[in-house]
């Protein structure tokens, strides 16, 4: 392949496609390389995509895109061994103005990629990029099994395991505590039964986060799709390693929890998948630009784990990267002098502003796993005691409840924990 | 179904793969495994049982790999690259 492109985008996920679409629409010559047999073939997430940011690329996309259900309810489950406490928010406003949609990535991503293709970008599937094409320290393009491809700017949208960022020497291997291993199953359950079990109308969906069942910093997740449920676990890699537990065993224990099992019973397993999530936050977003290259999406560690956001950060970083390349093209300067604009604009946008706001949070929860273990258990115990009816005087009951709580966590530590948490958010 | 615990083999059977003849995973220094400093983290963290300890070495069933990268994060002696274009896991749902 001798022709030269304005930009070669590596990876046809949300970040790469957003970048490709933005550049192609402005008339740039764009090539997208995808290692899977089609976009989405290697991609897995919880998960949900977000209306607000997806609409910036595709207004009213839900009318044509393969979305599953729009989310009307967000659930927070606090589990103990044989009980749960559920905090749930359902709002009819989510039926008026959609907020998020559950999707299967293997179905949504090809649709999304078509946007870029229709705008003029060329997408080549089944092509793995082996390395960067570098000459005298300048990135000139990429090396693939099909040959070298030259471009003014390489956009590394190659996901959490980004080889390109490492090959460019701008990122080290991910540290264990900054990544989470997610393991997921897609379980088929008839549409009507999903709606009965989760108390949903047609097209309405639930997004759920569940803590209290696993080691260290962990969470379970559950998303209702049209006629499947996406259910999975996510455990910090360092905590998983330390716990010496096997992911699949943890997953099976989670699925068999007496509060969870009825929701997925008589379902048929359709797919078993696993993926890493870069949840380290702001301090792990390393160099994301260099001469001739920009890094976007998961490859740049752009995930906001606090608000369950990822694809919207990916898409926005892609758009801003695309616009930066358009500007660089006008100036005909593809050095970091121009490309640093990408970082500056990300810092001004919600992407890095939000991550910066939350910068202490991953580290805080990582060093205080009691929020995921001790507190859920204590909450369940307290609610149980509150509701048991017997001959005990309430004065004694309340005394016992306090003692139970302070046995799990001393007064001083309780105050300290919540004071720190408050400080982190304010 | 919920009461029956599915084995990893049972689960992987539902997945779609296009298997390459060549592994995209390898051990950089097999000698290091003999005195593994990480208590066989590669075996433990892998969600699809790719790694096993057999006859004093790690064996790799790379065709079960879903390319998550956990093994590489857990141990720097794991060699990891993307499978050739079109090969490896190919999700139908994702």
Question: Could you give a short description of this structure?
Answer:
The complex is a heterodimer of chains A (426) and B (94). By secondary structure, chain A is of the alpha/beta class.
How large is the share of residues in beta strands of chain B? 15-25%
Compute the CA-based radius of gyration of chain B.
14 Å
Apparent shape of chain A: globular
- Summed up, the helix count of chain B is 4
> Spans of chain A of 5+ residues with little confidence (pLDDT < 50)?
none
CATH class of chain B: Alpha Beta
The oligomeric status of these chains comes to: heterodimer
Number of domains as seen in the coordinates of chain B: 1
Q: What is the CATH third-level topology name of the largest domain in chain A?
A: FAD/NAD(P)-binding domain
Number of distinct helices of chain A: 16
What is the percent of helical residues of chain B? 10-25%
Question: If you had to describe this structure to a student in words, what would you say it looks like?
Answer:
The complex is a heterodimer of chains A (426) and B (94). With 426 residues, chain A is α/β, with parallel strands linked by helices. Chain A folds into three domains: 198 residues, FAD/NAD(P)-binding domain, CATH 3.50.50; 102 residues, D-Amino Acid Oxidase, Chain A, domain 2, CATH 3.30.9.90; 59 residues, no CATH class. In chain A, strands 3, 4, 5, 6, 11, 12, 13, 14 and 15 form a nine-stranded mixed β-sheet that branches. In chain A, strands 1, 2, 7, 8, 9, 10, 16 and 17 form an eight-stranded mixed β-sheet that branches. The longest helix of chain A is centred in the C-terminal third of the chain and has 21 residues. Chain B is 21% helix and 19% strand. In chain B, the strands form three sheets. Chain B has a two-stranded antiparallel sheet with strand order 1-6. The model of chain B has no long low-confidence stretch (mean pLDDT 94). With 94 residues, chain B is of the alpha+beta class. In chain B, strand 3 and strand 4 form a beta hairpin. Chain B contains four helices and six strands. Chain B has a single domain, classed as Alpha-Beta Plaits. At the A-B interface, helix 4, strand 11, helix 7, helix 8 and helix 9 of A face helix 1, helix 3, helix 4 and strand 6 of B.
């Amino acid at each position: 392949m001798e022709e030269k492109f304005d930009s070669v985008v590596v990876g046809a996920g949300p970040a790469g496609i957003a970048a490709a679409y933005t550049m192609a629409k402005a008339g740039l010559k764009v090539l997208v390389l995808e290692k899977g047999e089609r976009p989405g073939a290697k991609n897995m997430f919880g998960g949900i995509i977000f209306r607000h940011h997806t609409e910036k690329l595709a207004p009213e996309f839900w009318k044509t895109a393969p979305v599953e259900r729009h989310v009307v309810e967000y659930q927070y489950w606090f589990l103990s061994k044989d009980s749960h406490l559920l905090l749930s928010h359902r709002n009819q406003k989510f039926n008026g103005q959609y907020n998020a949609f559950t999707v299967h990535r293997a179905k949504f991503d090809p649709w999304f990629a078509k946007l870029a293709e229709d705008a003029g970008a060329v997408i080549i599937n089944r092509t793995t990029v082996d390395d960067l094409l570098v000459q005298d320290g300048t990135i000139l393009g990429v090396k693939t099994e099909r040959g070298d491809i030259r471009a003014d700017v390489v956009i590394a949208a190659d996901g959490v395991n980004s080889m390109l960022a490492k090959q460019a020497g701008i990122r080290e291997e991910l540290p264990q505590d900054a990544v989470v291993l997610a393991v997921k199953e897609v379980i088929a359950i008839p549409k009507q039964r999903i709606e009965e079990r989760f108390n949903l109308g047609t097209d309405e969906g639930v997004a759920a986060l569940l803590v209290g069942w696993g080691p260290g910093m962990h969470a379970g997740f559950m998303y209702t799709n049209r006629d499947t449920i996406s259910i999975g676990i996510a455990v910090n890699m360092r905590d998983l390693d330390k716990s010496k537990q096997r992911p699949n065993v943890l997953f099976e224990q989670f699925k068999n929890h007496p509060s969870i099992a009825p929701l997925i019973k008589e379902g048929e397993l359709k797919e078993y998948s696993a993926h890493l999530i870069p949840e380290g936050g702001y301090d792990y977003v390393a160099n994301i630009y260099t001469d001739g290259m920009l890094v976007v999406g998961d490859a740049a560690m752009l995930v906001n784990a606090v608000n369950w956001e990822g694809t919207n950060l990916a898409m926005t970083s892609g758009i801003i990267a695309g616009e930066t390349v358009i500007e660089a093209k006008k100036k005909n300067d593809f050095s970091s002098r121009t490309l640093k604009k990408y970082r500056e604009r990300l810092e001004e946008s919600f992407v890095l502003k939000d991550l910066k706001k939350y910068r202490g949070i991953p580290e805080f929860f990582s060093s205080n796993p009691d929020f995921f273990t001790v507190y859920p258990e204590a909450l369940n115990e307290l609610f149980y005691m509150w509701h048991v009816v017997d001959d005990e005087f309430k004065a004694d009951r309340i005394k016992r409840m306090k003692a139970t709580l302070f046995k799990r966590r001393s007064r001083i530590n309780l105050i300290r924990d919540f004071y720190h948490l408050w400080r982190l958010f304010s | 179904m919920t009461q029956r615990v599915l084995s990893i083999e049972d689960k992987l059977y539902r997945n779609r793969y296009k298997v390459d003849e060549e592994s995209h995973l390898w051990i950089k220094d097999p000698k290091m495994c003999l005195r593994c400093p990480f208590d066989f983290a590669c075996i433990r963290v892998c969600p699809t049982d790719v790694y096993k300890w057999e006859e004093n070495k790690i064996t790799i069933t790379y065709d079960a790999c879903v390319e998550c990268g956990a093994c590489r994060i857990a141990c720097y002696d794991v060699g990891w690259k993307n499978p050739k274009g079109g090969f490896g896991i190919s999700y139908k749902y994702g």
